Amino acid sequence: MKALRVSHLSSDLSGVELAEMSMPERKTGEVLVRVRAASLNFPDLLMTRGEYQFKPEPPFTLGMEMAGEVVEADPDSGFAAGDRVMGGAKTGSMAEFLSVPARALAPLPDGLDFEKGAAMGAAYQTAYTALVEQGGVQAGQWVLVHGASGGVALAAVDLAKALGAKVIAASGSPQKLPRIAELYAPDATIESVGRFRDQVSEITGGTLCDLVCEPVGGDIFDESTRCVAFGGKLLVVGFAGGRIADIATNIPLIKGFSVVGVRAGEYARRFPERGKRIKDEVARMASSGQISPAIDRTLPLSRWREAFEAMAGRELVGKVILIPGQ
């Protein structure tokens, strides 16, 4: 089979290649899946450089999440040949076949095709962990979402709107704001540059935001500390902007807000029952049409470089889906 492999770490994708390799051998407790669609996530790009917190030793196959059809499974696994599934692992999904533990898979929700299924898992489970589990979002609250063209942040915009929150979608690329507004109709969109706190204050009538979902870091984090309402929460989801920010502890003390770190995968591992509930609730909302992932483009796996370069160049509004076998 063909798989997208990292032979060595590099800053310019020179260590990545589409290679021929043997089919995975299914072990007891695992499910063998024919991958029909794989989703590109920002950690995939970071892993090619060795810059992600999880650092697999090369060579390894890229891809954290996918959707496809079961080829073979244990009789007591809950899955059977032909079942449509979604899920994945930290690596391995950007290949024609993948063998993973049954617990790493879920039935593909009714109404979702393989492309939407591949785009759904990690982004929406992270957004749900941030907003609901750790943020305690309530209908009517103001939620500011930064980096709102990216997979997790765009999912947070979609999810927050579905849960009845009032959403400000922010992006450092003003040309992306009309597309974000078209997709999910946030209550307001802003360009996140400079002193955007004044815009947030005007939009919210001076109350500022109960929750700030912050996957960018750097200057965006710094200014976001001025956008959180008293008693609110600043949800740290990542550092896509590059600089890991510092905060003087007098700021949350005086303003009475919390800084909350969000690691959805670790949260689900430490609290497996909650992790299952998150996965089930995301699937339920997708099946009912309450949420739906945005896909920027779908490409054959043979055009992987185009996908990775588009992500590195911050060209995307939504997810890139790669189709193995093409």
Automatic annotation (TrEMBL):
Residues 11-322 form the Enoyl reductase (ER) domain. GO terms for molecular function: oxidoreductase activity. It holds the Pfam family ADH_N. InterPro entries: ADH-like_C, ADH-like_N, ER, GroES-like_sf, NAD(P)-bd_dom_sf, Zn-ADH-like_protein. CDD domains: QOR1. This is Zinc-binding dehydrogenase. It comes from Pontixanthobacter aquaemixtae.
